[in-house]
Design a protein that fits this description.
The complex is a heterodimer of chains A (376) and B (422). Chain A is an alpha+beta fold and 376 residues long. Chain A folds into three domains: 114 residues, Acyl-CoA dehydrogenase/oxidase, N-terminal domain (Butyryl-Coa Dehydrogenase, subunit A, domain 1, Orthogonal Bundle), CATH 1.10.540; 104 residues, Butyryl-CoA Dehydrogenase, subunit A, domain 2; 145 residues, Butyryl-CoA Dehydrogenase, subunit A, domain 3, CATH 1.20.140.10. Chain A is 51% helix and 15% strand. Chain A is built from eleven helices and nine strands. Chain A is globular and about 80 Å long. Chain B has three domains: 101 residues, no CATH class; 148 residues, Beta Barrel (Butyryl-CoA Dehydrogenase, subunit A, domain 2), CATH 2.40.110; 114 residues, Butyryl-CoA Dehydrogenase, subunit A, domain 3 (Up-down Bundle). Helices cover 43% and strands 13% of the residues of chain B. Chain B contains 13 helices and eight strands. The longest helix of chain B has 29 residues. Classes of the chains: A alpha+beta (376), B alpha+beta (422). At the A-B interface, α7, β9, α8, α9 and α11 of A face α9, α10, α11 and α13 of B.
Chain lengths: 376, 422
C-alpha cells in the first residue's frame, strides 16, 4: 500500500490547481451556480482538451488516458477545494464508472470515447424519490414489449439530470426485488415519455433533477438482470471519489478559517491568539488530515482492486462527511457574524458539505455498511 | 558528534563481515549478563551509531541496523535498553564532559546503574521551565531543596537527571541548570504515588539539602533548559525501545533469564499502559460475546471508533512515508498524540456501552478479569502524560498552522513571575 503520492502525481495536482485558481474563483462559482445548467461549456471544453480530465480513468482503447482511481481522486480533491462548477461527478465518475463496470466491451467502445473527449455529458440515474442509496431502492421498471424495453417510474436526485446528454438508468424487471432483476439502460435525453425537471437544490453548485419515465424506450447495457454487482462497485468508487472531493473542500475551509483568525482583531489581539480558537483549529486540522488519510487509502485500495473496498469506501465516506460538515460549521463560527452573510464565501462550501454529507448515503448509513462489511 | 569521523571506513559488506566475525569469537551465552555487556561495550558494537571512543563505531543509522540484524541472527543480547537510563546516556553523550562520559556511560549500557528523570514538579507540569526546585552553591558543592513528581523508577535509581533553578533573577528558561544527582543519600526521600487506577508507577522525590559535587553539572550552569530539550527529544523514542525489548523472544538460558528479569523491573510501571490507550483490539470480541454487536446504537459507536483508530494509523503511515521519501514533514506528523487521546476516549466510551451494568464493577468482578475496569480508569491519563491535549493543540496551532502565541506573563525575572502558592 502506497502512503504517499508520486512526484508525477504531485505535478499532475499542481497543473490542476493552476487551472482552477484561474478558472474557478468564487466569483465564477457564484455566476455559474445562478445559471440553470450550472456550468460553463467553454471551461468544460478546456478541461477536456487541455487537461484531458474526463478521460482520466477511461482505458486507452476507449479514448481515455488509462490512469486509475488515484488520479481520478486527485482531480476530485482539487475540484472540491475550488468548488468547480462542472458536470464532472455525473459524467466522469458516476456514468463512466457504471459503463465501465456494467456494459459489454462493444457498448463501452461506443459510449466511452465521446465521454472521454468531453463531447458528451452523461449521468447515472439510480436514486428515486424514496431517497435510498442502494440497489434495493430501485422501483422503476423495464418491460419488454415487442423487442424493446420500456421504462416506467421516477428517478430523483439525479446529478445534472436536466443537462446530461446521455442517461444511464438503473431499472428492474417487474416482479423482482432486492438486488435481483436489475439492469442498466441507456436512454436518450429526447426519448418519448421522459420528463426532466430541475429540483431546487440547496447547494446551487450541484444541480439535481427528477426524471419521470412513462413507457420510455431504453437500450439494455450489459447482461439483463445482472447490474447489481456493477452498481455496487460503481457506488463504492463514487463514494471514494466524493470523499476525496470532500477533503479538498474541508481543507479550503480550514485554510479560510485559519487565515481569518490570524487577521481578525478583537480585544486588541488577533482572535487566532486565543486558545478557544486555536484549539478549534487544531481539532479541525486533525479531523481533516484523518479524513484525507481515509480518502487517500481508499483511492489506493480501489487502484489495487482491494477485496475490502466496500468497507473502505464506507469508512472514507463517513469520515469525510463528518470532517467536512464540522469544518464548515466551525469555519462559519470562527468568522462570526460575517460568516453568516451571503457575501462571505463560506456558505458556498457549507452547502456543498451539507449536500455531500447526504449524497450517496449519510455517515450513519455508511457506518452501518462498514460494520456489515468489516469482520471485527 | 564531531568525533564520528570514521563513517567512511565501512560499507555494508565489510561491516557485516566484521560484526559477524566478532560475534563468532565473542558472543557467549554462558557469560553473566554484566560480563557480556562489559565485553560488548568495550568492543564498540554496543552502540554502533555512537562515536568510536564512546562504545560505538560512528556508523550511520542504516549500518547500525545491519549490526542489529547480525546480533538478532545469533540471538546475541544488546546493552541495557530500558527506561530513563537510555535518556541519561544520550543526554550525557551530547552534553557531558569526557570525565562525565567516562564515569557514567559504560555502567548505563551494562545495566549496572539505574537512572531516573527529575523534571516535573507539583508546581510545574505543562510549564516544565517553571521549576522551583532550587540548587544553591555553597562554595564547594550544590545544595538541593524542593520536590519532584511523576518520577518513574526513582525507588531503585542510582542516579537522577535533575533540572533545578540556579538563578532567580533572569527569565525562567535562563535560570535552570542540569545536574547528575546521587539518589542514594540522606537528603533524598522517595515516596510512591498511588494513582486513581490503583497502580503506583511513579514517585514523589523530596530534597532536603541534598548534595551534588561541583563537577556534576551537565553543560554549563544556566544552560539546563537546552540540555533538558535533548532529554525530552529522546523521550518519545524511548517508548519504542521499551516495546521492542518487551517483545524479545523467550530464549532459554541463564543470560536470557537475567535479561528478562531486568526487563520485568523496567516494564513494571508500564503494565497498565495498553489499557490507557483504550484497547481497541478487544472491542470486536467483547461486542460479539456480549451481544452488543446487535445493538444499532452501539454499532454506530463502534464504527466511529474503528474509523478514528484506522485513520490515526494511516495518518502516522503517511508521515513515515513522507519522511522516507525525504519530503518536508506535513501537518500529519504532529497529530499522533492528540489522535491517540481521541481514540482512547472513544474506546473507553465503547467499552462502557458494550459492558453495560458490568462497567460499574472492578477487579475480578469486572469483565476480562478487571481489564475492562482498568481501561475505564486508566484512559484519563493519556491526554495528560507527556504533554496534555491542550498543550498539543497549542503546539499544532502555533507551529503547524502558524497562529500567534498567547501573551505571556512569565517573561521577566523568574523571581517576579506569579507561581503556585500551594
Amino acid at each position: 500500500m502506497q502512503f504517499s503520492f508520486s512526484d508525477e502525481q504531485d505535478q499532475f495536482r499542481a497543473i490542476i490547481q493552476r487551472f482552477l485558481r484561474e478558472k474557478s474563483p468564487t466569483t465564477e462559482v457564484r455566476r455559474l451556480m445562478a445559471t440553470e445548467r450550472g456550468y460553463d461549456s467553454e471551461i468544460w471544453r478546456q478541461l477536456a482538451e487541455q487537461l484531458g480530465l474526463p478521460a482520466i480513468h477511461i482505458p486507452e482503447i476507449h479514448g481515455g488516458s488509462g490512469f486509475g482511481p488515484v488520479e481520478l481522486c486527485i482531480v476530485m480533491e482539487e475540484f472540491g477545494r475550488y468548488l468547480l462548477c462542472a458536470p464532472y461527478f455525473a459524467s466522469s465518475v458516476l456514468a463512466t464508472t457504471a459503463i465501465m463496470n456494467g456494459a459489454t466491451a462493444a457498448e463501452q467502445a461506443e459510449l466511452l470515447p465521446p465521454i472521454a473527449s468531453g463531447e458528451r455529458i452523461a449521468t447515472l440515474a439510480f436514486t428515486e424519490p424514496n431517497g435510498r442509496w442502494d440497489a434495493t431502492g430501485v422501483e422503476l421498471t423495464a418491460d419488454l414489449a415487442g423487442g424493446d424495453y420500456l421504462l416506467s417510474g421516477t428517478k430523483s436526485f439525479v446529478l445534472d439530470g436536466c443537462s446530461a446528454e446521455l442517461l444511464i438508468v438503473v431499472a428492474r424487471e417487474p416482479g423482482t426485488s432486492g438486488s435481483q432483476g436489475l439492469s442498466f439502460f441507456r436512454v436518450e435525453p429526447d426519448a418519448a415519455g421522459l420528463v426532466r425537471e430541475q429540483l431546487q437544490s440547496m447547494d446551487a453548485t450541484r444541480k439535481l433533477a427528477r426524471l419521470t419515465f412513462t413507457n420510455t424506450p431504453g437500450i439494455l447495457l450489459g447482461e439483463l438482470g445482472s447490474a447489481a454487482a456493477a452498481l455496487s462497485r460503481t457506488l463504492s468508487l463514487a463514494a471514494i471519489a466524493l470523499a476525496n472531493e470532500m477533503v479538498g473542500g474541508a481543507q479550503a475551509l480550514l485554510d479560510s478559517a485559519v487565515s481569518y483568525a490570524k487577521m481578525r482583531v478583537q480585544f486588541g489581539r488577533t482572535i487566532g491568539s486565543f486558545q478557544a480558537i486555536k484549539h478549534k483549529c487544531a481539532d479541525m486540522l486533525l479531523e481533516v488530515e484523518s479524513a484525507k488519510s481515509a480518502a487517500y487509502y481508499a483511492a489506493q485500495a480501489a487502484a489495487d482492486n482491494d477485496s475490502d473496498l466496500p468497507a473502505l469506501a464506507s469508512l472514507a465516506k463517513a469520515c469525510a462527511s463528518d470532517a467536512y460538515m464540522h469544518t464548515a460549521a466551525n469555519c462559519i463560527q470562527i468568522h462570526g457574524g460575517i460568516g453568516f452573510t451571503w457575501e462571505n464565501d463560506t456558505h458556498l462550501w457549507f452547502k456543498r458539505a451539507k449536500s455531500s454529507e447526504v449524497f450517496l448515503g449519510d455517515p450513519s448509513y455508511h457506518r452501518e455498511l462498514l460494520m456489515q462489511n468489516r469482520e471485527l | 558528534m564531531a568525533e564520528s569521523n570514521n563513517m567512511s571506513n565501512y560499507d555494508e559488506a565489510s561491516l557485516r563481515a566484521e560484526v559477524t566475525a566478532w560475534l563468532a569469537a565473542n558472543w557467549d551465552p554462558q557469560l553473566s549478563l554484566i560480563d557480556w555487556r562489559t565485553r560488548l561495550t568495550e568492543s564498540g558494537w554496543a552502540m554502533p551509531q555512537w562515536p568510536a571512543q564512546w562504545y560505538g563505531k560512528g556508523v550511520s543509522a542504516q549500518l547500525a541496523a545491519v549490526v542489529a540484524e547480525e546480533f538478532a541472527a545469533v540471538n546475541a543480547l544488546g546493552v541495557a535498553s530500558g527506561g530513563p537510563g537510555r535518556l541519561a546516556a544520550v543526554t550525557i553523550l551530547e552534553h557531558g564532559s569526557d570525565a562525565q562520559k567516562a564515569q557514567y556511560l559504560q555502567r548505563i549500557l551494562t545495566g549496572e546503574d539505574a537512572w531516573c528523570q527529575l523534571f516535573s514538579e507539583p508546581g510545574s507540569g505543562s510549564d516544565l521551565a517553571g521549576s522551583t526546585t532550587r540548587a544553591d552553591f555553597d562554595g564547594s558543592q550544590w545544595l538541593i531543596n524542593g520536590q519532584k513528581v511523576w518520577t518513574t523508577s526513582a525507588h531503585h535509581a542510582t542516579y537522577g537527571l535533575l533540572v533545578a533553578r540556579t538563578d532567580w533573577d533572569v527569565p525562567k528558561h535562563q535560570g535552570l541548570s542540569y545536574f547528575v544527582l546521587d539518589m542514594q543519600q540522606p537528603g533524598v526521600e522517595v515516596h510512591q504515588l498511588r494513582q486513581m487506577n490503583g497502580h503506583a508507577s511513579f514517585n514523589e522525590v523530596f530534597f532536603t539539602d541534598a548534595r551534588i559535587a561541583a563537577d556534576q553539572v551537565l553543560s554549563n550552569v544556566g544552560n539546563g533548559w537546552q540540555v533538558a530539550l535533548t532529554t525530552l527529544a529522546h523521550e518519545r523514542r524511548l517508548a519504542d525501545v521499551l516495546r521492542a525489548t518487551a517483545a524479545r523472544s523467550k530464549l532459554e538460558g541463564p543470560i536470557y533469564e537475567e535479561e528478562r528479569a531486568e526487563t520485568a523491573i523496567v516494564m513494571e510501571p508500564y503494565q497498565w499502559y495498553p489499557q490507557r490507550a483504550g484497547r481497541v483490539d478487544l472491542v470486536g470480541a467483547r461486542a460479539k460475546s456480549t451481544g452488543a454487536i446487535n445493538d444499532p446504537a452501539i454499532r454506530q459507536e463502534i464504527a466511529k471508533l474503528l474509523i478514528m483508530s484506522q485513520t490515526a494509523e494511516w495518518t502516522a503511515r503517511r508521515a513515515r512515508a513522507a519522511q522516507e521519501h525525504g519530503r518536508p514533514q506535513g501537518p500529519e506528523g504532529s497529530l499522533g498524540k492528540l489522535a491517540s487521546s481521541n481514540v482512547a476516549r472513544a474506546a473507553s466510551h465503547v467499552h462502557t456501552l458494550i459492558s453495560g451494568a458490568d462497567a460499574m464493577l472492578t477487579g475480578s468482578d469486572s469483565p476480562l478479569d478487571g481489564i475492562i475496569a482498568e481501561i475505564l480508569v486508566s484512559v484519563p491519563a493519556i491526554s495528560i502524560a507527556g504533554g496534555t491535549d491542550e498543550i498539543q493543540r497549542n503546539i499544532i496551532a502555533e507551529r503547524v498552522l502558524g497562529m500567534a502565541k498567547e501573551p505571556r506573563a512569565d517573561t521577566g525575572p523568574f523571581r517576579d513571575v506569579p507561581k503556585n502558592t500551594v
